[in-house]
Amino acid sequence: MIMFKKAGAAAILATVFSASFSVQAGTDADAAKLGKELTPVGAEKGANKDGSIPAWAGNEPQASGWSYGKSRADAWKHKGDKPLYSIDASNVDKYAAQLSPGQVQLIKQNKGYKMDVYPSRRTCGNPDFVADNTKKNVTTAKIGADGWSLKEATVPGIPFPVPHSGTEAMWNVKMKYAGVGFEYPTLYTALSPRPGSSEWIAATSTQTYFFPWGKKGSAQFSAMPPVEYYTYFAYKSPTALAGQSLAITVFADKTNEVFYYFPGQRRVRRMPTYAYDAPQIGFENQYTMDEPRMFNGTIERFDWKLVGKKEMIVGYNAFGMYDPNVKFSDVTKENAVDSAHRRYETHRVWVVEATVKSGVRHVAPKRTFYIDEDSWSIVVAEDYDAQGKLWKLREGFVIPVYETGSCDNPAFVQYNLIDNRYLVDQSSLGGGKDMKWFVEANDPKLKEGFYTSDNLRAISER
């Protein structure tokens, strides 16, 4: 059973609404708390009662002497930390109150699985311009009349640092600052074998994300095209997928636009239904279009309920999940990524429940999301099937990003708790070259015109 704590004055624990959109605007009093009892993006600034979660001490400066290409883990000032304890099947019940139901089930059913828990380090901050924009948003950011789209925000900044609904919390996730984009020179998307088999699906690709609202400074989201992000994705292997590529626009107010290049046909096709719970091509119906990045795409198919806050053991400061210099097959074990590459800490999270709207279908009609209060990253997500059975668990892994001065968590692992398979994606793990975040839009891939169907055809044809 999950126990939710009541927050004190410093927590500003939001009132729970059953509606899918905010009915209460932020106030000047809420804005005044940012930077005082709350961090600049709305987290509780103080430590928890037993000190397992420390007080937030301010932005942690970029690692001295680090530059792209050097080890992120070696540059981290807490790299000498040792585990405080480990959680496995023998003691999981002792820690169940700090875990999600999916985490508990995963530990109990996967022989040898363990979580090494380290001292909690609140390493996530943001640049001053993000903090300034976030404070403005308390009283000015707005959800659209449809009840789910983002109508207005000062960007880059957290739209609703004192959220009053699950919808607002999810927009905070979507609009957290990660520069103007990032890229993977080599990205593994890997699915473990079917039970009784030893054959992995291990696809490699290159991928770029572009956040057009992420440029330094201050701008109004309403003055821009209503786009959350653009992404370009091109498979390098296996042979069945090599040469296939996609250009995707994720809108803030309508369904994604997807263009897909098929090399065998030498043509680009528009894929109007390649969104939501559509299975991704090549992954045996184990991976849907809205599962990357813990949740991907528009949110209009669900009602979003802000449940409360919880102290929880989650993937954090887990540089091992981004290590490009290991051999991918050496760290992807039978049931999970090697525990030496997964780091867990205790942090406070917002809990948001998603229930599919009446008259709408989805393969996972109920979902639960656990959102880190410091970074607004989804750190755990759970999907339930149509029979109400816990089906999938996703764990994301937060790290401080030296390029941006903020945190991000693209790397995640998804466990199918019914089929006993797992998937790894959105990580530079084993890629040979580190992923890279950008704060300036100088690269051609960081322009809107790169993501058109015409350009996809031009850069994809062999």
TrEMBL record:
Tagged with keyword Transferase: no
InterPro entries in UniProt: DUF1329 (IPR010752)
Signal peptide (from-to): 1-25
CDD domains in alphabetical order: LolA_like (cd16329)
Keywords, alphabetical: Signal
Name of a matching Pfam family: DUF1329
Keyword match DNA repair: no
Taxonomic superkingdom: Bacteria
Record-given protein name: DUF1329 domain-containing protein
Native organism taxonomy: Bacteria, Pseudomonadati, Pseudomonadota, Betaproteobacteria, Rhodocyclales
